[in-house]
């Protein structure tokens, strides 16, 4: 229960707006999301230095900007996937099928965790207004409105999920706890009506006015250094 | 009474006019049975600057009336509406959405649903930008100051208490500076101290701004001194309550300070323990202590009432009692079956009809006896259509339904945990529910309340107050008390 809650909280943009400028936050997020994808696609994940560098950088930035503890708790999901992958590889090995080496396995797992951390960094690093502004600027204004409304109700729905879970557990015991989904559907349809009323009265959230400040020289240096270092590590190191 | 309204109605320079005019209003929802009209030829008027209170049993159509007045019934619910509604001196059909927003704003039962963004400040700015463009910040600042919410609007919605959020929702509703404000159960979930007093302050502010106010509320005794007229909605029609009856209501109710049963009050004779809490401490992650050394013993047949203001940790305590949260320190032991009815009662219901709810809950008990007792109980509370989808019931009806279902299913040695079971119920409905709970003498009950008004409904109960994380016996009740005989003047 708390596992899904922790996971969902990672994708709720709540950044206060202080710290790096918006272009810097976007540029750094893009670099950090792209790097594990490139490493995995073109080098089968076998770039030990770049993997370690981006993983450490992601942890450091999450520690600086947001709640690292919360993020690490949310890492439980990729860790589950990694564990399943390991089990599959071990079974394959036992059955005599070709399997990746331990090094390949570890590096690919770290790459997956880095990608997850980078995506959650992107969400945690932006405010919802900024996210909406970005989506609108790239021609996805409808998606922006829907994302906004969905994310606004996510914490509320999570809380309702906990309540429905407790009530159903007490009602039927563990065997029929899946019935909590029915309660959630009923209540979500009521919320949907209320949201429709709110939209009727207030309209959908408009494209926000976001003040985009130019990045400071130090921020430009940070982005440039990160990009150059990633390129160097990709090309020149094993 | 709002300032000088009676004199203004006599004429003079400041003559008031009906800002809301309703003529022959009928309403029914899609899929409802032929002839099943929720509102039936309703007629009434509300004058400018008047404060009107609408009361009625749960499910009598109060929320539907609000929907019909604002055009939401047709636009969102696809309801069939007949008759004429005039708002701000123009017919409702002639008003654009923008005109309606400028004329009337509604503050719903559930304040969470007012916000389409997770941070209220962002949400309010977004709305204000639509109305005022670059003047948005100034408009938001103005209403935030007026309602005293500058300090909380920038916090995430989920971090605000119900009372704070209600205040912010009112601030948002004031952004377009509407002439009319409609409140649908503004006191729902609000505690006696900060919540109710907060709303009274808001009413004073709105009155001083010359707003027309329509309030729909069950706990109306708190508001009688602030309203100009009272209407009763019954069987689809709206009847004005006579001045003499309103006076009787005012006189028949009053603030009382009386002693209540302490923890040593006579309880059931049973020595069978159903629940024990030993020195329970709880906190979320590294936050502050929500509970500090709570001790509680509950025996079979006991009734325990836990009163506490908003944010005192009542729901957290219930979650610990239910065994879903583990105490940080201390022990919780349960010795029997436990049922939990949450504050949002819809989350208790899992089936597609009322009948199926009874049947599913009775499946592992003495079935036939459980069915017949369950159906009889429901009939007594007016649940005649058992094929009905619980989704179509009002908040109060669902709360009572969930409570009745749980007590019927346990019926015997067991414990039920009720989180605010009187939400959305009239005083009489609350009294009837409390009497029914009392019939089940073998079942232990823990009832969590944020209003002292209902404490007297459980004369044999042990009453505690949860405050600053500790549970202490509540020695005195200081609440609005009602005389049943007087209230029956307004019974449906």
Automatic annotation (TrEMBL), chain A:
**What superkingdom heads the lineage?**
Archaea
Q: What is this protein called?
A: Energy-coupling factor transporter transmembrane protein EcfT
User: Does the keyword Transmembrane feature in the UniProt annotation?
Assistant: yes
Which chain regions cross the lipid bilayer?
20-42, 48-68, 75-95, 107-128, 218-236
Kindly state which keywords UniProt assigns to this record, in alphabetical order. Answer: Membrane, Transmembrane, Transmembrane helix
Automatic annotation (TrEMBL), chain B:
Q: Which Gene3D superfamilies match?
A: P-loop containing nucleotide triphosphate hydrolases
Main localization is membrane
Q: Which GO terms describe its cellular component?
A: ATP-binding cassette (ABC) transporter complex
Extract the SMART domains matched here.
AAA
Q: Which GO terms describe its molecular function?
A: ATP binding; ATP hydrolysis activity; ATPase-coupled transmembrane transporter activity
**Among its keywords, does the record have Transport?**
yes
Q: Where in the cell is it found?
A: Cell membrane
Keywords of the record: ATP-binding, Nucleotide-binding, Transport
Pfam families recorded:
ABC_tran (PF00005)
Say yes or no: keyword Metal-binding present.
Answer: no
What positions does the domain ABC transporter occupy? 20-260, 275-491
Q: Which domain of life is it from?
A: Archaea
Q: What does this protein do?
A: Probably part of an ABC transporter complex. Responsible for energy coupling to the transport system.
Q: What is this protein called?
A: ABC transporter ATP-binding protein
